[in-house]
């Protein structure tokens, strides 16, 4: 009898452990007291969170990315002309993050970062550049292998006076890197050869996609089947759907996340699609402070099913919980992360009343806790 009870207890403990993940949060450190990068224990079943660890004195790690083996973390350090890119050891079990090294970002104000087994790739917003860094055997960053400079401008003279690369993103097959340039109203599609010895040929321009003038492409998301992608434009809230078949891109639909009759300032921010491909979500900052839910159809078209407040100001990045029954929104200006319950069947969101209070949260990334 005692053995049976022990087995039941161990089984319950195992199930509980499977519900626990790490939530990594990148922040701005110049607006309010912040240590940089925070790691929380997150229970995917209950939505409960608890601070696990944090860095010390890391400057503006506004976006982060974790290596495929869950052992290293890379962040931008968005700091004008003194901007850098940092590599850290990451202990998922304890949440401890230790600096390995950092390098000049090769462009002012890096705002997005991705990585694979060979490279760390950064979008430098103010510098208008893409920088490709290698990785050494210890997980650190090598010198920049390739730096690509964008040129041009567009209709909005205050925001589009020059190139502003806002995102770099791997295509589903990892053969291309997409780069959204808010300043030029273009999406640049680069052929990606991670194994080449010719550093000038790691990224080679294959195509450019023009978006609506003055709209400012910010973030994009691919459908899980890789057949469609969706581009969110910051300056006017446009949301554009494209088909993507064998590298060929065609526009499918153009809609908006701006509510009818809304006359305030728009600042569209982030976009993600549920893993089942059925629902798309997008945030809007400015005077709106909303998250909008769209139903995704088999032909790539979408229709709005919900728009609600993010219960805070400046909704920047957001992320699905590991089981997608929750969705978390980082409200940069109101200094909080709001937890919404997500109905997987309808896609609809409901405020749980749960909140993480944290200085200027920007980027949310979930990882296994071990």
Automatic annotation (TrEMBL):
GO terms for molecular function: 6-phosphogluconolactonase activity. One of its GO terms (cellular component) is cytosol. PANTHER family: 6-PHOSPHOGLUCONOLACTONASE (PTHR30344:SF1), 6-PHOSPHOGLUCONOLACTONASE-RELATED (PTHR30344). Residues 1-17 form the signal peptide. GO terms for biological process: glucose metabolic process. Keywords: Carbohydrate metabolism, Glucose metabolism, Signal. This is 6-phosphogluconolactonase. It comes from Flavobacterium beibuense. The lineage of its organism: Bacteria, Pseudomonadati, Bacteroidota, Flavobacteriia, Flavobacteriales. It comes from the Bacteria. Belongs to the cycloisomerase 2 family.
